[in-house]
Design brief:
This protein is 39% helix and 21% strand. By secondary structure, it is α/β, with parallel strands linked by helices. It folds into 2 domains: 266 residues, Aldehyde Dehydrogenase, Chain A, domain 1 (3-Layer(aba) Sandwich), CATH 3.40.605; 188 residues, Aldehyde Dehydrogenase, Chain A, domain 2, CATH 3.40.309. The strands form 6 sheets. A 7-stranded mixed sheet has the order 14-15-16-13-12-18-19, with helices on both faces. It is globular. Bound molecules: nicotinamide-adenine-dinucleotide (NAD).
């Protein structure tokens, strides 16, 4: 398929050229340049801010039915365009077409859920003596600056656009420069469904320039960011300068507790598929496998056997189970983290090397006996590597799960009902999967605690994060 034209979408205008700097978008399966992406300059960002201010005034007064109709219309268009959207995502991000198609449907589910929620944004009437009246209303927070990363090129922009639009906000989206066409295609579904063009816009640029410019403006009242903890902390400080509201979806280091009483084969079939989904470039990826000692060897052998069977190839190939990594930075990170772990005493069970010289393919990797001082046991690897270690008992396993400052997703495999409840309570995480890797849903909050961020996307909480309350007292 041909790769679409790229542009900035500001106030309904497709802007490119004009002496703007550009960024080369690359196909991770080949390393070939797909297109040049225009980067916003200060005047572009000011134009987007002015439009967002106008768009907010318009959209906050829209009826819930209007918002609902736009979200449902965009969802319908995404279904119609599913194959086109999926192919764009695979071309610029590398993931398999099967995964990209699921991403489209996740957006469809979320937009339809929000379309239903938006007509239920109730306030409260407080109990007061006759003649007095006090009400609490919810209002849209204002124009939102949203920053979306490249790992879910369709899903992340869907999340960043859907909630503000449902809440009655305008939004300026800066999606990742690596995957711009997917973001533009999702925005186009909303515009084609009737969303006024100053309500949602898309800019690309030098990330730090764009975020400083947008967060430096008093027009922006909320920032929503998905990405690394390092960048998230930097942006949170910028947002704090103007007391802007924030939703932060940051990194994780997913612990997976595997107890001896678990259905080990079911656990293996589930977690191995989960580990290598999107080449491990998933914030809720299962990463630290914390295995009860008596089943460690069996679990490790079963994991390695399955990892070796994962077919790595171009995401558009019919047999590919895992595509390339999304960019060359990830290959370097894998080599550094795995090299450091092995140098510190870890055993490389399989993988541990790049595949071929074209594109950014990396072998599904398993490390065992990795010492806790290895960088990879402390830093989010964001790649196709599983870390499998043995622990003596439940207390040691929970302590290891909570050792890191991250707290996004955690998983536990056990058939003991009392232990399921204990573990779910004790683990410090925003999402816990017990005997499952399915921890998301359009009706369920998605977010973390500690260094994994705060606030949630999806579910009623996703819209709530774009609303402020106002108490009105009448004497
Ligand atoms: P990075 O940390 O520089 O970038 C992460 C994302 O943040 C990218 O989309 C980037 O465009 C954006 N970004 C970076 N600096 C920014 C700024 N000043 N203002 C606004 N946006 C900014 O590095 P990377 O190489 O793209 O990814 C490295 C790490 O980021 C990964 O190892 C992973 O830990 C994390 N990450 C997390 C997610 C997630 O879903 N939580 C997604 C992508 C990357």
């Amino acid at each position: 398929m041909t790769y679409p034209d790229l542009y900035l979408m500001i106030d309904g205008q497709r802007l490119s050229g004009g002496g703007r700097r550009t960024h080369k978008v690359v196909n991770p399966a080949t390393g070939a340049v797909l297109a040049e992406l225009p980067l916003a300059d200060a005047a572009d960002l000011d134009a987007a801010l002015t439009a967002a201010q106008r768009g907010f005034r318009r959209w906050r007064d829209s009826t819930p039915q209007e918002r609902s109709a736009v979200l449902q219309g965009a969802a319908r268009l995404m279904v119609e365009r599913q194959e086109e959207l999926a192919r764009i995502a695979t071309l610029e991000q590398g993931k398999t077409l099967a995964e990209a198609r699921i991403e489209v449907m996740m957006n469809v589910g979320l937009f339809n859920f929000y379309a239903g929620e938006v007509v239920r944004l109730y306030g409260r009437v407080l109990v007061r003596p006759v003649g007095q009246r006090s009400t609490v209303t919810k209002e849209p927070v204002g124009p939102v600056a949203a920053f979306a990363p490249w790992n879910f090129p369709l899903g992340n922009p869907g999340r960043k656009l859907g909630a503000p639009i449902a809440a009655g906000c305008s939004v300026i989206l800066k999606a990742a420069e690596e995957t711009p066409a997917s973001a533009l295609a999702i925005l186009q579904c909303l515009l084609d469904a009737g969303l006024p063009s100053d309500v949602a816009q898309a800019v690309f640029g030098v990330p730090d320039e764009v975020s400083r410019h947008l967060l430096g403006s008093p027009i922006i009242r909320k920032m929503s960011f998905t990405g690394s903890t390092l960048v998230g902390k930097h942006l949170a400080k910028l947002a704090a300068e103007d007391c802007k509201r924030t939703t932060m979806e940051l990194g994780g280091h997913g612990p997976v507790l595997v107890f001896a009483d678990a259905d080990i084969d079911k656990a293996l079939d589930t977690v191995v598929a989960g580990k290598y989904r999107n080449a491990g470039q998933v914030c809720v990826s299962p990463t630290r496998f914390i295995v009860e000692a008596s089943v460690h060897d069996r679990f490790l052998a079963g994991f390695v056997e399955r990892a070796k069977k994962v077919v790595v190839g171009d995401g558009s190939g019919p047999d590919s189970i895992m595509g390339p990594m999304a960019n060359a930075r990830r290959l370097d990170a894998m080599d550094r983290l795995i090299g450091d772990a092995v140098a510190k005493g870890a055993t490389l069970e399989t993988g541990g090397a790049r595949i071929g010289n074209a594109g950014f393919f990396y072998a599904p990797t398993v490390l065992s006996c990795t010492p806790l001082d290895a960088d990879i046991m402390n830093e989010e690897p964001f790649g196709p590597v599983a870390l499998i270690n043995a622990y003596p008992d439940e207390a040691a396993m929970i302590a290891e799960a909570n050792r890191l400052p991250y707290g996004l997703a955690a998983y536990a495999w056990t058939s003991d009902a009392a232990r399921q409840r204990r573990v779910a309570r004790e683990i410090e995480a925003g999402m816990v999967g017990i005997n499952t890797s399915m921890i998301g849903g359009s009706d369920s909050p998605f977010g973390g605690v500690k260094w994994s961020g705060h606030g949630a996307e999806d579910g009623p909480e996703g819209i709530d994060a774009c609303l402020v309350t106002k108490a009105i007292h009448e004497g």
